[in-house]
């Protein structure tokens, strides 16, 4: 569990200051969010919250109380699609006294009970001290792009997660909640759901799946090495909410997707591909599972998904289109060409994985966590599509509806340079 640095032959991870996604926190001289944090923002108060450097939080921290004055929960990757919903769910729970929202870049969003901490898990050397008062650590930090530079996403996602796991163990944190994924599963059936015992070896060609599967193996070792840490692995389907629509369009469709195309009746056909059956979930419902895991005594893996299963017929109904049965190969070839020329950010390998991922049985989450999704999969997708049409987002750097420095033109330049 000591994978802190780059291995032999690897270049060290060095954020580029000219990249809009890497000018975060105290490391970025051109941080577009710096003014809101440094000039005119409320001063840091450990009893109220606000923005803080890790050292400020460490210096202000007292002993862990074991939840006597409410649980303290550290959420790593707290400003993205999943993280923003998790922070909201935890802040709304009376059993939670304080949330440490750890992010690389400062959001303007100020939820209750939350102290934002600027820290990069690959660079912050005092993570263990930062977690010293936490009753639970929730690891959500993840970099989806650039798919053209898998070594960079590996360092951020795998080595960064390992540093979080190790820091939680060093700080003797009682509970570690890790956001795994349906993408960790090996190829499986599309005509019946599988439970949490299905192999988690991922689809090896897709970087996202390799990384999620590798961390499952690391957690197997972690649980044997640190049996006193209660480890929960949540494996949700694909997560959608209205506020994340613009971010997900940037991550997976790119700047060339016109808003008008997602209007009902504008898309004439939906391809009915072999294997196009997948599960999705509203992000807020996945966050409720995190909240339940934090405040309970459960451990182990839990599948999370909503009904019904999403297939071509459901998508056609939502778009007011008709289905056309097609083989996957022509679409994959087109996606591969668009990806190689940087026209779209989603890789053909991830497309292959989606067609192979199994359907998940969520009985364990319902029975042991007492978890029930409040939204159907169709409602979650419908909310996402409305967000796409409106260009919705949130006042956090990952979810901002417009990138600092130039909207879709800036997106295009970032894609061409294969930057995060």
Q: What can you tell me about this protein's structure?
A:
With about 425 residues, the protein is α/β, with parallel strands linked by helices. The chain has a single domain (about 25-415), classed as Rossmann fold. Helices cover about 35% and strands about 15% of the residues. The protein has helices spanning about 35-40, 55-60, 80-90, 125-130, 150-170, 205-225, 245-255, 285-295, 310-320, 330-340, 350-355, 365-370, 375-390, 405-415; strands at about 50, 70-75, 95-105, 115-120, 135-140, 175-180, 195, 230-235, 240, 270, 275-280, 280, 300-305, 310, 320-325, 360. The strands form five sheets. Strands 1-4-3-2-5-6-8-13 form an eight-stranded parallel sheet, with helices on both faces. It has a two-stranded parallel sheet with strand order 7-16. The longest helix is centred in the middle third of the chain and has 21 residues, at about 150-170.
| Radius of gyration from the alpha-carbon trace, in angstroms | 21 Å
> What is the averaged pLDDT score?
85
CATH-scheme architecture: 3-Layer(aba) Sandwich
The description of the largest β-sheet is: 8 strands, parallel
Question: What name does the CATH topology carry?
Answer: Rossmann fold
Secondary-structure element series = HEHEHEEHEHEEHEEHEEEHEEHEHHEHHH
- Major beta sheet, strand line-up: 1-4-3-2-5-6-8-13
Structurally, how many domains make up the residues?
A: 1
Number of helices: 14
What is the helix content? 25-40%
The fraction of residues assigned to DSSP E strands is 15-25%
**What is the name of the CATH class?**
Alpha Beta
CATH superfamily: NAD(P)-binding Rossmann-like Domain
- Uncertain segments of ≥5 residues (pLDDT<50)? 1-48
Distance between termini?
A: 26 Å
Number of strands: 16
Structural class estimated from helices and strands: alpha/beta
């Amino acid at each position: 569990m000591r994978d802190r640095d780059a291995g032999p032959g690897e270049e060290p991870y060095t954020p580029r200051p000219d990249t809009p996604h890497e000018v975060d926190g105290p490391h970025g001289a051109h941080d577009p969010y710096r003014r809101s944090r440094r000039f005119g923002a409320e001063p840091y108060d450990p009893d109220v919250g606000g923005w803080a450097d890790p050292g400020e939080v460490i210096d202000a921290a007292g002993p862990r109380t074991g939840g006597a004055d409410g649980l303290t929960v550290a959420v790593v990757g707290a400003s993205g699609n999943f993280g923003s919903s998790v922070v909201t769910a935890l802040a709304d729970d009376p059993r939670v006294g304080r949330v440490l929202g750890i992010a690389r870049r400062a959001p303007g969003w100020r939820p209750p009970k939350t102290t934002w901490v600027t820290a990069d898990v690959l660079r912050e050397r005092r993570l263990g001290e930062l977690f010293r008062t936490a009753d639970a650590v929730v690891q959500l930090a993840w970099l989806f792009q650039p798919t053209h530079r898998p070594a960079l996403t590996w360092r951020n996602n795998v080595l960064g997660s390992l540093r979080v796991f190790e820091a939680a163990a060093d700080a003797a944190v009682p509970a570690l909640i890790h956001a795994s994924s349906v993408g960790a599963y090996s190829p499986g059936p599309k005509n019946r759901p599988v439970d949490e015992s299905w192999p988690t070896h991922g689809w090896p060609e897709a970087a996202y799946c390799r990384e999620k599967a590798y961390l499952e193996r690391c957690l197997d070792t972690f649980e044997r090495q640190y049996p006193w840490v209660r480890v929960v692995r949540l494996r949700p389907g694909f997560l959608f909410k209205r506020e994340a629509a613009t971010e997900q369009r940037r991550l997976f469709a790119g700047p060339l997707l016109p808003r008008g195309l997602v209007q009902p009746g504008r898309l004439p056909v939906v391809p009915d591909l072999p294997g196009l059956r997948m599960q999705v979930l509203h992000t807020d419902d996945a966050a409720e599972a995190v909240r339940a895991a934090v405040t309970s005594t459960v451990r182990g893996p839990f599948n999370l998904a909503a009904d019904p299963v999403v297939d071509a017929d459901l998508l056609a109904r939502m778009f007011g289109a008709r289905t056309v049965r097609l083989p996957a190969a022509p679409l994959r070839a087109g996606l591969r060409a668009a990806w190689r020329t940087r026209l779209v950010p989603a890789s053909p390998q991830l497309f292959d994985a989606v067609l192979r991922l199994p359907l998940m049985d969520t009985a364990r989450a319902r029975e042991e966590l007492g978890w029930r999704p409040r939204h159907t999969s169709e409602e979650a997708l419908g909310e996402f599509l409305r967000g796409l049409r409106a260009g919705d987002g949130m006042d956090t750097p990952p979810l901002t509806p417009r990138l600092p420095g130039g909207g879709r033109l800036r997106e295009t330049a970032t894609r061409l340079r294969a930057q995060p």
